[in-house]
Amino acid sequence: MHLPAVSLMVSVGLASTLVTQIAQPSANLSALNTATCPVTEGRAAFSPPAPYDEAAPPGTFWYGNPGLWTNLQVDGTWRGLNQNASGLRQKVFWWHPGFDGKSEQKPELTVTGRRLDSAGSFVQSPPATNAFDGWAILTGVDVPTVGCWELTGWYRGNTLSFVVSIEP
């Protein structure tokens, strides 16, 4: 049984005190067993409030709470990500009710990652940017290595966590 990973925080101040730790790559990637990663699944889907679109893009589902949500892959995996000096890059879109990218062009969204199948963590510090004509927050997340990761976003006192399997 896969359960959604949702946690609530009272303050975003914790995110600013976290120290970035780069995960050590797995010595044997073939030993990675993604079947044991408790990815966040679509049955935990969320319906965004009006005026946001109720239908998620094809192959994805909305996931979140009234204060912060995102869209995730139906199968819970991110595959074939581009590699850079900081790790494997994925663009993640986030929504917050009333977010206005025209007045807040560099949102103070912080994303952290915690590896569940081995040691490792990271902090992706602000600023993010805006997308979809200012209706969404966009951030590039650099995950240090493949594996099972819990990612958490903090924005304006709202927190959202989910689990994804990062595969080669």
Secondary-structure map:
Layout: H1 13-17, E1 60-65, E2 68-73, E3 77-79, E4 82-84, E5 87-95, E6 110-115, E7 121-124, E8 129-131, E9 136-143, E10 147-155, E11 158-167
List the defining traits of the structure above.
168 residues, globular, 6-stranded antiparallel beta sheet, 40% strand, 3% helix, disordered N terminus, Immunoglobulin-like, mainly beta
Structural features, described:
The protein is mostly beta strands and 168 residues long. The protein has a single domain, classed as Immunoglobulin-like (Sandwich), CATH 2.60.40. Helices cover 3% and strands 40% of the residues. The protein has one helix at residues 13-17, and strands at residues 60-65, 68-73, 77-79, 82-84, 87-95, 110-115, 121-124, 129-131, 136-143, 147-155, 158-167. Strands 1, 2, 4, 5, 8 and 9 form a 6-stranded antiparallel β-sheet that branches. Strands 3-11-10-6-7 form a 5-stranded mixed β-sheet, with no helix packed on it. A hairpin with a 2-residue loop joins strand 4 and strand 5 (87-95). The two termini are 24 Å apart. Residues 1-34 have low confidence and may be disordered.
